[in-house]
Amino acid sequence: MANPLIKISNIKRNFALGEETVYVLKGIDLEINKGEYVALMGPSGSGKSTLMNLLGCLDTPTSGNYVLNGKDVSKMKDDELAGIRNKEIGFVFQTFNLLPRMDAIDNVALPMIYAGFVKSDRKKRAEEVLTQVGLADRMDHQPNQLSGGQRQRVAIARALVNKPSIILADEPTGNLDSKTSVEIMALFDEIHANGNTVILVTHEEDIAEHANRIIRLRDGLVESDTLKS
Fold it and tell me: What residues are paired with 93 via a beta bridge?
């Protein structure tokens, strides 16, 4: 058996709030293999956003170990984590997080600038992923010229541009109507079918149903971990 893409061992995350300590994650063990399609669920305050921030190397644990693609990232400094994030993880957020003054192609190419690609390679790859998400005719449009669904497609293309190990999506349909949500989820299904590892954070059961595995958190612990047959 190959090593898991993600291996988390006894991860805890506490936050100091004034004099008090808030224990958000209370010892989580988790393995996710390459090519899995996972939904992280849980009520508000269950720790799913904190876990997502740790998985995405946006934060480090108070204690415990996190090995991502063979590298222990739990003890890394901020600049090392930034490098891992840019190379290994493609983020898709509920609020799209696009730069308003840049057109679609420049928004998508942005992670490649940080990764040190030359301009011609950036343009070629950005065109490739925008075509993949169905926006070949919208590359020169700025975010305010696009619908919500199109903006989320741009965000998904940006997440794919550096060919990351993991696509991490936080409530990716949270700001979209139901018809557009269905289209966006069909796109995630396709991305997974192409071999990407996809991790969705959602509180909506119908969105989670797209995944092959549903991990439910409650009070900072894994309550259940269900693999769909």
Answer: 170
The CA-atom distances, in angstroms, between 161 and each of 8, 29, 130 are 26, 30, 9
- Name the one residue in this structure whose structure tokens are 């300590």: 21
Do residues 132 and 195 make contact, with C-beta atoms less than 8 angstroms apart? no
The pTM of the full predicted model, rounded to 2 decimals, is: 0.92
Instruction: Judge whether 179 and 148 are in contact, CB under 8 Å.
Output: no
DSSP at 58 = S
Cα–Cα nearest to 166, from 68, 97, 24:
68
Q: What is the dihedral of CA 74, 53, 96, 206, to 10 degrees?
A: 120
d(CA 221, CA 155): 30
Per residue in 154-192, is it b (16+ CB within 10 Å) or e — as a string?
A: bbbbbbbbbebbbbbbbbbbbbbeeebbeebbebbeebb
Q: Which amino acid is at 62?
A: T
Give me the helix-helix angle, 104-114 and 119-132, nearest 10°.
130
The C-alpha atoms of residue 197 and residue 101 are separated, in whole angstroms, by 31
pLDDT digits (tens, 9 = 90+) for 145-204: 999 999 999 999 999 999 998 999 999 998 899 999 999 999 999 999 999 999 999 988
